[in-house]
Amino acid sequence: MTWSVRRIEEGDAPLVLLLAGSLDKWFNAEGLQKMAKDLLTHEGFLAVRGERVLGFLTWEALDEEVANLSWMGVAEAEQDSGIGRALLRALVAELRTRGFQAVEVSTVADSVDYEPYVHTRRFYRASGFVDHRVDAKFFGSGDDRYDRLVLSLDLRAGREPVGGPSRPGP
Ligand SMILES: CC(C)(COP(=O)(O)OP(=O)(O)OC[C@H]1O[C@@H](n2cnc3c(N)ncnc32)[C@H](O)[C@@H]1OP(=O)(O)O)[C@@H](O)C(=O)NCCC(=O)NCCS
Question: According to CATH, what is the number of the domain 4-154?
Fold first, then answer.
């Protein structure tokens, strides 16, 4: 069965949190708590197959020109099949329509030796995001602090940052 992308609607939060909870290599309890709070106010998109949520992406405005991609995830068994890129394309179209010039995303920096986020950084960079800055010891608490990488995607007219699917789409 094929999948499609639609806006996040009221009542979707539990489904998003259920999926995010299954991505425990990437999201810890603290992250899930913050996500639950953000889902009350952030907008976003879902990839769905029938009733099943396969992926999510949320965002918020940082100011009139710059948006922040706050959370994103694709079910592990469905990763690497173009869903993340489709969610990103929906976001780029939405932000352009609403006059934003750039979108930022924060993730775990290259300095952190943790394999799951190698894939994540590769995804953002392959989608046109460029490294913007590293904030040392931004994430975590106490002795367990680690660096944040902030990437940025230019949305201004004439640029086509997020390529189409290289494989057959949904
Ligand atoms: C990062 C994530 C959202 C990407 O979604 P996805 O559906 O797996 O990504 P796509 O299939 O759309 O991949 C898009 C591009 O990313 C790159 N990519 C994806 N998976 C890759 C892999 N295993 N190896 C190398 N490159 C890969 C490719 O360039 C791919 O483009 P292509 O299909 O044209 O080759 C998803 O993997 C995920 O949920 N990861 C865990 C949660 C996470 O990291 N969230 C972000 C927190 S900051």
Answer: 3.40.630.30
